[in-house]
Structure prediction request, 461 residues.
Amino acid sequence: MRIVMKFGGTSVKDGENILHCANLVKKFSEDNEIVVAVSAMAGVTDFLIKAAKKCYSDPSPGFIKVSIAELAKKHFDAINHAVSDDYRSKVILMIERLMDELEKVLLGITYLGELTKRSEDYIVSFGERLCAPIFSATLLSIGVDSVALTGGDAGIITNSNFGRAKPVKDVYTIIDSRLDPLLTIKKTIPVITGFIGSTEDGSITTLGRGGSDLTATLIAASLNADEVWLWKEVDGVLTTDPKIVPEAKLIPEISYLEAMELSHFGAKILHPRALEPVMVRKIPVRIKNTFNPDAPGTVIREETKSVKNIVKALSLIEKVGVVNIIGAGFDFAEIMSDVFKRLAEAGVNVIMVSQSSSELSLSIVVDESDINRALRTLKKLQNGVIRVTKMEDIAVISAVGAGMAGTPGVAGRIFSALGKNGVNIVMISQSVSEANVSFVVSKGQGGTALKVLHDEFKLFK
Prediction:
């Protein structure tokens, strides 16, 4: 089999974990061709973002020295634990060069007083660029031939939309031309930086939220892999959040559609964009637990064997808000066009939309961090007819399942159960696929709604 494995930040959080993951790769490489994509070590991406913003807003060369020293120690500690003497000096030299490069970039922001999307992508990329060589050297240390590559080296060529770059049209051909010879001729395991790509002129880009998962699926589609394995810190996809509903159960398999719906509405499976490359080739994606590798995990595939469960899973998003556009006597199509154009230009992420049947109001759910920006942007539409308001302290619940399609009364059953338990619904939306019903409640009732529906559809069985 040809398998693309992706290891997330928690899986590679320190030297002990990196060595553990390398041994997993070695175990499965005995009978398979393996490509590895790695995230930054846990906490490093957030560290880099904060450092960049600090250098821009509150310049301090002393802060940079301390930050670089702290980051270097984290990676050198990992090297000392995971990499053998034979390869240690070489990888240490690579890390030192990257640290020197990062320090110069941060100093440049301090002196110029400028932080662009392009420079932010460049800074954030250091997380993966520091981790990949360490992981590759660890594989070499345990007797597995390997080479570390950046996303650009591997052929992930993108446009110049920094922060959320999209692969170019010919990306699959480019990736295949660069990676297939490594697998078939050199018989080596490429360790590739997740999350980052490169423009055609060599500028580093990032793929946005869920970017490391997208790296893995892009590579899998390019190489016509048999499966993608996403190594995480959970056994697989659960029926809901076990922190809220302890009775939550593992779901052995779900469809692409169900996974996309769950991911969009807050379930931490993978980003919906990450499924697009593998859906065309019908490549299964397996969620596996780094710390319980013998567990079968959850398989995401084109279609599942059974849809006996009408509702298969429930998700909850709490950090959201609603913007309402209310009025009468206006051209609704024109207003909608204007609204979404303004939100896109302002960089506001729209999660969910609901329109009243009388066409007198439009309600839009956005990330909590975007609510005030969305309000400011849409307030410009206000006149004697149109009013714009906001609602905060809310939560979105989403019920997902392919079995919902064509099954009468599912929505009625959901809202009846919630009503009997005193949960007030603020807003409702249903997908065209009929595989998802989502609704808004107050944040304080989010957990209650989740428990009520988990019991109603007997997802604990």
